[in-house]
Amino acid sequence: MPAVVIIGAQWGDEGKGKATDLLGSRIDYVVKFNGGNNAGHTVVVGDEKYALHLLPSGILTEGVVPVIANGVVIDIEVLFDEIDALNARGVDTSKLVVSANAHVITQYHRTLDKVTERFLGSRQIGTTGRGIGPSYADKINRVGIRIQDLFDENILRQKVEGALHSKNQLLVKLYNRRAITVDEIVDDLLSYAERLRPMVADTGLLLNQALDAGKTVVFEGGQATMLDVDHGTYPFVTSSNSTAGGASTGSGIGPGRIDRVIGIVKAYTTRVGAGPFPTELLDESGEWLRARGFEFGTTTGRPRRTGWYDAPVARYAARINGITDFVMTKLDVLTGLKEIPVCVAYEVDGERVEEIPVSQTDFHHAVPIYENFPGWSEDISGARVFEDLPKNAQDYVLAVEAISGSRISAIGVGPDREAIVARHDLLD
After folding, report:
1. What does DSSP assign to residue 280?
2. N or C of the chain: less Cβ packing under 10 Å?
3. How far apart are CA 117 and CA 124, in angstroms?
4. CB neighbours of residue 427 within 10 Å
């Protein structure tokens, strides 16, 4: 049975939960392997809408074991708030497992994130201010706090003292903020320890044993390919590896165990925050896409930047992730357009470029080269097989598939879990 990685193939918010839902009852474990509560999934079940930020979307599927793995940074207050909100709505969260090696977001991480971003002025990155970057920075600098540290007060206190020694210098002398005391951080973190303890495990061991037993494990990436700290539009990226390779380091399973990589793309493109975005629409078309697609961040509520489908971005994602299948979401949003432009290449310094330029400067100045495809006006929300789609919608999908680097195996045609057209089995 397979290990399946699901990743965003654009700049995030593609609807990764849709692919998890499509796999449905065949999934035994769903694993969040990177990021924190700086992004989210919106999942619609019948008349109920769920906005998940830190929890993997599989927590809404009966029988699935949801896992927050070692590559995630956890704001524990947010974690329990999210659990409590789901419990209040009748969702069973008792199977949640949390890695002992996952790093913790503290008050000083959130404070530093906000003041640093403001200090950058016009050079702001567009961070959510939730402490994600500073927590990952501490991890790399080897001064981070891990979940397991909450169960040893002496170790926890030593680590907090070490971290605050330099951070308070920054807060007081550079940013004119008050110093944060060791006691307030330690007391806050210890207040969660006993409730957290039953959830904590060696998740790397757990997941490898699950795969050995023939279970199906889905690794659900936060953010997306173009926000990967190594392979995205640096520095306008997240602070973790949100590509398929991050599933191995972020969970403790070997790369040879991954059977399939599913990349999620919208039928158009969006991004949140600053950074290059060649197909961005700053006109009525962009506003139309934003309104029709309800393009506002699940976690932040920020309006998303919108643009037409970018095939070079999809090809890039297919290449560096080893994508075996694409799932295209929100095809229904394009209903009503007479013509639908697709970016098939760029013009850079007067030359046609088929792939994403290696130079950030060139990518920032890349001008999209479009090919236009006929639109459709028919309601497609009830389609469940490919032949149910209008011919122009079918032609659009097939044309995009041909230039995107992998097959499009499923198509989202509405917000509901069932509103999806399956073309190929994602586990076959």
Report:
1. B
2. C
3. 6
4. 16
Q: Which domains does the chain have, with CATH numbers?
A: 3-91+202-422 (3.90.170.10), 103-197 (1.10.300.10)
- Contact status, residue 57 vs residue 20, Cβ threshold 8 Å: yes
Are 426 and 409 in contact by the 8 Å Cβ rule? The answer is: yes
Annotated catalytic residue: which of 13, 21, 113, 138? 13
Dist. CA 6–CA 327, nearest whole Å = 10
41 is catalytic: yes
Catalytic residue among 21, 28, 41, 231: 41
From CA 359, how far away is CA 26, in angstroms rounded?
A: 42
- For 42, the enclosing helix (H) or strand (E) is strand 41-45
**What's the rounded Cα separation, in Å, for the pair 150 and 215?**
31
Contacts of 318 (CB under 8 A, 6+ apart): 9, 263, 326, 404, 405, 406
- The answer to whether residues 231 and 15 touch, using CB atoms and an 8 Å cutoff, is no
Bridge partners of 305?
271
Instruction: Say what the pLDDT of residue 120 is.
Output: 60
As a whole number of angstroms, the distance between CA 330 and CA 229 comes to 27
- 3-class DSSP state for residue 16? helix
Whether 188 is catalytic: no
3-state secondary structure of 20: helix
Dihedral class, residue 36 (left if φ above 0, else alpha if ψ from -120 to 50, else beta): beta
CB 264 within 8 A of CB 12: no
What whole-number distance in Å separates Cα of residue 24 and Cα of residue 398?
A: 26
pLDDT 10s digits, 343-386 = 999 999 999 999 999 999 999 999 999 999 999 999 999 999 99
pLDDT digits (tens, 9 = 90+) for 120-158: 665 655 566 789 999 999 999 999 999 999 999 999 999
